[in-house]
Amino acid sequence: MTFNRLFCNRGILFQNFRQHGWLGILYLITLLFSLPLHIATEHRDVPQTITSLFQSNGETHILFAITFPVAMGIFLFRYMQSGAPSDLFHGLPLQRKHLLTVNLLTGFAMFLIPIWLTTAITGWIWAAQDGLAFIFGGSEIWMWGLSMSIYSLFMFMLTVAVGMCIGQSVLQGLTVYAILLLPVVFWFIFTLHLQHYLLGYPYGDMNSYAEKISLVLRMASINSYPVIGRELVIYAALALVFIPLSYVLYAKRKVESATQAITFTLVKPIFRFGLMFTLVLIGGAYFTMIAPPGSTGWTIFGYVLGGIVGYIVAEMIIRKTWLIWNGRLLPKLVLYGLLSGLILYVPVADWNGYAARVPEMNDVKSIKLGGDHYTYVNGVNQKVDDQPFYSDDPEFMEAVLALHQKIITSDLSLPDPVYPDDNYDEYVYINYKLNNGKVMKRRYQIPEAEFRQELMALKQSPDYKRVAYDTYKLDEDLLSIGIRSTISSYRKVYIGSPDQVREFKELLKQDILDQTYEEQRSPWQSFAYAEMNQESASHDPYQPKEMWSFEIKPSYDRVIAWLKENKLYDQLLITADEIASAQIVKQEIDSPGNPQWVYAEPEYIDGNLSGSKQVATKNKKIISDLLERQRSGERTEKATVYQIKLNAIRGENIYMMLKEEDLTEDMKAILADQ
Length: 674
Description:
Layout: H1 2-7, H2 10-34, H3 36-41, E1 48-49, H4 58-65, H5 68-76, H6 83-90, H7 96-128, E2 134-135, H8 138-165, H9 169-197, H10 207-210, H11 215-221, H12 229-252, H13 267-290, H14 296-319, H15 329-345, E3 364-369, E4 374-377, E5 380-383, H16 394-409, E6 426-434, E7 439-446, H17 452-459, H18 462-468, E8 480-485, E9 492-495, H19 498-513, H20 517-520, E10 528-535, E11 545-552, H21 557-565, H22 569-572, E12 579-590, E13 596-598, H23 602-606, E14 615-617, H24 620-627, E15 634-636, E16 638-648, E17 654-659, H25 665-672
Parallel strand pairs: 1-2
Antiparallel strand pairs: 3-6, 4-5, 6-7, 8-9, 8-10, 10-11, 12-14, 12-16, 13-15, 16-17
Helix pairs in contact: 2-5, 2-7, 4-11, 5-7, 5-8, 5-9, 7-8, 8-9, 8-12, 9-13, 13-14, 14-15, 16-17, 19-21
């Protein structure tokens, strides 16, 4: 009886549901429309197999889970943020723990009942209705209900805990979402700071995880990256921590703190520094992006300006007035500024040894080059086990360590995260798996000419080619192989015989592993592309098979000889007799200090973008020479290139590009006549 009278006071319960129950009803209606109604009415000619109900309108579910519980937390505890209601409720013959318990139970009922009613109705539709647009199992239904319950519980309890420290409802809601976004803002902007000042920082590795650390950004990734158990455990643990924390904070909260911005003295410096340091990072990032390349002074100015503005704004919010000037303002600002400077400086300081650290050979277990690999199965991005991509071959490991050591000892400038140096044309992403179980990662952008010898030793090793060119896929079973000409998509051949597929795979693998360094960097376009069709691990009919594409370069002698032997080469080849004429127009590239990529551009000829006079020829020898040399795209700041169009007698026209040094004497002769 005591529990029912005090902790579950019926009067307050009825009043809560009478006054705020509409939020629970609205939550139920929106969930019913977004999940069971959507599943029941969606039509597809071929049903889609899904592994999570969040793949069906999931971004809407998350949106509701991060808004309705917040609104419930604000409305149910609105009495604490207003003077008169606060006095009234705290004057009742109930202890604070009784008030908090009954309001928490009301909130739990308002969001858990709609979620589990929606789960039950979805299960009924799944069991009773045939021919649904989505194929899923009963476990997916229960998992959705559990996930939504944990997400909603986390958002509700976060709102309640924040409300204990904040005395204004609007500021309470803003603070809740600021807390959700703060890890992402800190992650991205602090990463930009580390990239700007720390040589070798593997900034690209962080972006793939950013969407998983905030429920606000989870809306964009929930379809491709479904809920995992570890994520739910973290949110559930945080929600459970907020429950006793709310009791402790409520017991210590003063009644007269209603309408104050910050209710606890201890929270004020945390709020002040948090807002200040966030604006420090934002200010530095903003001025880094708008400043000229290499202008470190502007970045520092952005840090200082952001810190001053952040501190002043925080003081105005805390005091609820712009009249904040007194003798203690400047010393506090300097103190917080020094603390911010230390946080920015310590990770990038030379004395911490991060930039100069190269592991010893005896400390390294294996090495991988490159980032993570992902595969798309049943509409979900899944990370591929990276163990096969690590190598413990001594020759490969020595080549990587030698390259890393030279990078450290060379006078390599720090990369500009906004204006990367286009002269740095090689990316090196090293993952060391150390004997102590840790993984050490470094990423560099280097000029090829300065590191040619080290890159040559590395890129000619079999273990490098195995990963860089995905030759491990050639060891798997294939259904068929489709080969498509590079210069004409209409020229295709198919290999379906198991014996021929096996022969082609082995020859292609040998040609890839036998490539020299110069052949790997060849500027010439590939002869054709081989598409490997595999059995699919997916049950999704929209994704019936996996495909991998491999280049067939002109230097792949074994493969080209095999194609000729099996009468397939000529089917891919385009001869001069199939081309009526060639059009050639000169293009001058002259942009010192601003390199640009130059490709074959159809509009440059068809649209006459340059206004230059075009040269046309029907000379079969020249056309034949053109068909034998197609240059791939190139980045340059000063060059003379020729945009070329081959007009086919039948079918599609061919567009290509050559540099001035690629021209034959006959080509130079007809161009000189104009």
